[in-house]
Write a structure and sequence with these properties.
The chain is about 60% helix and about 10% strand. By secondary structure, it is mostly helical.
């Protein structure tokens, strides 16, 4: 007995053909069955039917409906202040990214990081001398903060 060839060419030489049957209702899969005998006989095939698949999305998704409802409650009609705030926050993101990239570039220059540290240290010393050293200047700082808070929050 000689060994069986298992390549595609051997299947074609043995006379096995796979015939696809198209059906509108159910897709089918053709599985070729190769004979075990060395005689070149035509191969038989087994047809298996698969259930139909539903590839469409569901009409309503409860999570999506909840997101739409929250969006409508927060940014719906008559809520222009919230929408303006949201647009401002979204527009601030590219500005912050650009600022971060600029500062990273400046930090890589040879002398600038040391100069930035020196300027920051000098400003900190001036702030302590101007606002925190004496009691009357601390009162002035606290009054300024309270006035700003009342302006912002009402």
């Amino acid at each position: 007995m000689e060994p069986q060839e298992t390549t595609d060419e051997a299947t074609v030489e043995n006379g096995a053909e796979v015939v696809e049957v198209a059906s509108a209702a159910k897709p089918t899969i053709e599985i070729p069955v190769k004979p075990l005998s060395p005689n070149p006989e035509p191969a038989k095939s087994i047809t298996t039917s698969l259930p139909p698949t539903n590839d469409s999305l569901p009409e309503s998704n409860p999570l999506w409906e909840q997101v739409q409802q929250l969006w409508q409650d927060y940014f719906g009609e008559g809520k222009k202040d919230n929408l303006t705030l949201a647009i401002a926050l979204i527009a601030a993101i590219p500005f912050l990214i650009a600022t971060s990239a600029l500062l990273e570039f400046l930090n890589k220059l040879p002398l600038l990081p040391g100069i930035f540290e020196l300027v920051g240290f000098g400003y900190s010393l001036w702030f302590v001398y101007r606002y925190l050293l004496l009691a009357n200047s601390r009162k002035e700082l606290i009054d300024g903060i309270v006035a700003w808070k009342n302006k912002v929050f009402g």
